């Protein structure tokens, strides 16, 4: 006798996204109206703003809402009830903030190790990637993923194939994640690319001088900046709340894991 197939348990952001969509279908938020601020939604459901943002990204990916920087989240259309089926492709997707948390914990330590192991060739390759990105930004060229290349080359500079494979796996997941791709839409503009370039230049400088803690802190701060940028995109009242799955400055700062 075949075992029954048990559907995957829905994540919090999916449950909240479904509830918000149902409210839109029921007419609580007509087309053109603005949803409540993220902080209010977070308080209503008793979750962090990161969970709310992932729910809103899901709705934006479905074309139901539009997240506008400095303004809020607006209803673009009334979804149909049968569109629930379209959520199946998101059922196994990991939220972008969960990905960022994993990257902070893993890549910060990898960067620190790379600072002790990187060869002159590794440093030169990393420098060339940043120069390439600088030229691409000037030309508004988005054809090459210099960000991905930098992080993979840095992981390779650890001289540990298992660490490189781990980072490759994370980037493969990001490349195939609809939610991450929607997230990336909001942080791929020229000002953000310049900001990430500066972060990576600071990181490379630490690796070049074999500054272990400097490399660790630079990678951690870079990914923290990415996270903060997404949180601020539609934050109309600019609260200083920095909710996340863990504190921005971890308790083990100064002690490598």
Write up what this structure looks like.
There is one protein chain. With 257 residues, the protein is mainly alpha-helical. It is built from ten helices and two strands. The protein has a two-stranded antiparallel sheet. A hairpin with a 3-residue loop joins strand 1 and strand 2. The N terminus is likely disordered.
Q: What is this structure's SSE topology?
A:
Layout (H helix, E strand, L loop, with lengths): L11 H14 L12 H8 L3 H13 L3 E4 L3 E4 L20 H22 L2 H19 L7 H11 L4 H15 L2 H8 L4 H19 L3 H21 L25
Antiparallel strand pairs: 1-2
Helix pairs in contact: 1-3, 2-3, 3-8, 4-6, 4-7, 4-9, 4-10, 5-6, 5-9, 6-7, 9-10
Shape: elongated
Order of helical and strand elements:
HHHEEHHHHHHH
Report the strand count.
Answer: 2
Describe the main β-sheet briefly: 2 strands, antiparallel
Give the CA-CA distance, first to last residue: 47 Å
Spans of 5+ residues with little confidence (pLDDT < 50)? 1-8, 235-249
Radius of gyration: 20 Å
Give the helix proportion (percent range). 55-70%
Structural class: mainly alpha
What is the mean pLDDT? 83
What's the tally of helices? 10
Strand order of the main beta sheet, please? 1-2
> What percent strand?
under 5%
Structure, briefly:
By secondary structure, the protein is mainly alpha-helical. It has a two-stranded antiparallel sheet. It contains 10 helices and 2 strands.
List keywords for this structure.
257 residues, two-stranded antiparallel sheet, single chain, mainly alpha, 10 helices
């Amino acid at each position: 006798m075949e075992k029954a197939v048990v559907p995957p348990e829905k994540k919090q952001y999916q449950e909240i996204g479904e509830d918000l969509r149902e409210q839109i279908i029921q007419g609580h938020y007509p087309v053109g109206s603005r949803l409540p601020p993220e902080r209010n939604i977070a308080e209503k459901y008793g979750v962090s703003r990161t969970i709310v943002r992932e729910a809103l990204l899901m709705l934006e990916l479905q074309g139901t809402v539009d997240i506008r920087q400095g303004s809020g989240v607006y209803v673009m259309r009334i979804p149909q009830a049968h569109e629930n089926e379209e959520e199946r492709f998101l059922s196994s997707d990991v939220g972008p903030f969960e990905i960022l948390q994993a990257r902070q914990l893993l890549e910060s330590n990898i960067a620190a190790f790379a600072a002790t192991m990187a060869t002159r060739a590794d440093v030169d390759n990393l420098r060339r990637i940043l120069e390439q990105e600088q030229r691409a930004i000037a030309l508004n060229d988005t054809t090459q993923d210099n960000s991905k290349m930098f992080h993979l080359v840095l992981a390779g500079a650890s001289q540990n194939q298992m660490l490189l494979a781990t980072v490759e796996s994370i980037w493969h997941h990001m490349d195939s994640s609809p939610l991450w791709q929607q997230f990336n839409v909001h942080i791929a503009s020229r000002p953000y690319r310049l900001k990430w370039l500066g972060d990576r230049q600071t990181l490379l400088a630490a690796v070049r001088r074999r500054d272990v803690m400097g490399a660790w802190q630079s990678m951690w701060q870079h990914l923290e900046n990415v996270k903060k940028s997404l949180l601020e995109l539609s934050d109309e009242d600019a609260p200083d709340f920095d909710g996340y799955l863990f504190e921005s400055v971890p308790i083990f700062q100064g002690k490598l894991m």
